[in-house]
Design brief:
The longest helix has 37 residues. This protein starts with 16 loop residues before the first helix and ends in a 6-residue tail after the last helix. The chain is globular. It is mainly alpha-helical. Strand 3 and strand 4 form a beta hairpin. 69% of the residues lie in helices and 3% in strands. The chain has 16 helices and four strands. A two-stranded antiparallel sheet has the order 1-2. Strands 3-4 form a two-stranded antiparallel ribbon. Helix 6 runs parallel beside helix 8 and helix 8 packs antiparallel against helix 14.
């Protein structure tokens, strides 16, 4: 279940169930490997070895980038360069030194833990997982709808689970991990859907790939409530993702696609019979969002961090100042400052590679557009790099690539026998 606002230890914001379980996956796979050694299962033993190999490579690359960034920071500090973080960028943790800040280690641990989910799914995902993915999603949605209905009836938040608290700010006040935000976009004073993610845009980033996954597995009893939940979040991230998805469907399947037809028919019906209400909602969701304090703050934060990046020393532009130092309102400028141009390129290749390499079929189409929407959402609006659904679908995509490669090899070895082989 994609829980981010509830932790096992309130004093430690990193103890979300998902991150802890992802860390435990190392021990689980180790025990699994020991059992395989007794059973002498060669194929699964190879997958287990590849799992650990990928983790070691990922940690090595992250450590290398952080090491080069910190050496550059130390060299420039000794040369008299003033990074002046406090007055120029948004720091993950306001307390700490310029060299080897504590957030370098905590944020890197979050990233490594999230990568475990990716590599675990890459080597061990199978379609039987889908049932459990959707059970967790269903519970997650039920809690979100409960919050929304509770606010509608009582006018206050009914969230009784969220307990995550981040580091103290300059005033010594704790930064809460869950924020209840209201809206009157639909003519009612309602709560923006967030469930246990902490806030609406994070909810949208979490649910969007699950919604698309449900569509491409043809599960209407799941994807219809998910679509409603995304709309009720009134998040610009949600509406951007929905728009990108339907643009993709039109380009990929053209207007003969039944989902596009249904959307056109329903939209036309609603606009004809209540065009004034539709216009007011669109004005609120698009124009007011852009001109709102939140929209202005996001764009201002991005340009501020890009401006800071443009004045960084050359080698810091290449390697950044260290992963986890700053946190803008977008991942693009955050990644440039933290990991530099090379870090941005590495992340983009790692994330987008399956989009270009996966074969064209209905299941793969869902994975491709999910990755694209997640990537775009991260880069422009939600810098939450450690959300586990992001890494789950990246891992499933690489798992699918491995299946396709295996099928191709088998077809080349014995075309007659494997001609009818199918992927998931």
């Amino acid at each position: 279940m994609p829980i981010n606002s509830w932790v096992l230890m309130p004093s430690n914001p990193g103890t979300t169930p998902g991150l802890l379980l992802s860390l435990l996956s190392i021990a689980f796979v180790l025990l699994f490997a020991i059992s395989l050694k007794l059973k002498n299962n060669i194929e699964l033993k190879k997958r287990t070895n590849d799992f650990y190999r990928d983790i070691i490579i990922f940690i090595y690359i992250l450590t290398l980038f952080n090491g080069l960034a910190q050496l550059t920071v130390l060299f420039n500090m000794n040369s008299g360069y003033d990074y002046d973080f406090a007055r120029n960028v948004i720091l993950v943790n306001e307390n700490g030194h310029v060299f080897l800040r504590s957030s370098l280690f905590t944020q890197s641990i979050y990233l490594i833990a999230a990568s475990f989910v990716c590599f675990y799914a890459k080597y061990f995902y199978k379609k039987e997982w889908n049932k459990y993915i959707f059970i967790g999603t269903t519970v997650f949605l039920i809690y979100g709808f409960y919050e929304w209905i509770y606010y509608l009836i009582f006018g206050t938040s009914g969230d009784f689970l969220s307990n995550r608290v981040f580091a103290l700010d300059f005033n010594g006040d704790p930064r809460l991990g869950s924020m209840s935000q209201r809206t009157d976009a639909f003519g009612l004073d309602t709560l923006r859907m967030k469930s246990l993610t902490g806030e609406p845009s994070a909810f949208a980033l979490t649910v969007l790939p699950l919604w698309i996954f449900a569509i491409h597995l043809r599960k209407p009893l799941l994807h219809i409530p998910m679509l409603l939940a995304l709309v009720l979040s009134t998040s610009s991230t949600a509406f951007l993702g929905i728009l990108l998805y339907f643009i993709y469907r039109v380009l990929r399947y053209h207007l003969r696609d039944r989902y596009c037809k249904i959307l056109i028919y329903i939209s036309t019906f609603i606009i004809i019979f209540n065009y004034k209400k539709v216009a007011s909602i669109l004005e609120f969701l698009i124009i007011n969002k852009v001109d709102s304090h939140s929209g202005t703050q996001r764009s201002s934060s991005m340009f501020t961090h890009l401006e800071y990046f443009s004045h960084m020393p050359f080698f810091n532009k290449l390697f950044g100042v260290g992963f986890g130092y700053v946190r803008s309102t977008d991942f693009f400028s955050t990644l440039l400052v933290n990991s530099g141009i090379l870090g941005f390129i590495f992340f983009s290749i790692f994330f987008l590679y399956p989009i270009f390499k996966l074969k064209r079929n209905y299941f793969n189409d869902g994975l491709k557009i999910s990755l694209l929407i997640i990537y775009v959402s991260l880069m422009i609006s939600v810098p939450e790099f450690s959300y586990l659904t992001t890494w789950l679908f990246l891992g499933i995509s690489y798992n699918q690539l491995a299946r396709e490669k295996k099928t191709t090899i088998l077809n080349n070895l014995n075309p007659a026998k494997f001609q009818s082989s199918k992927l998931i």
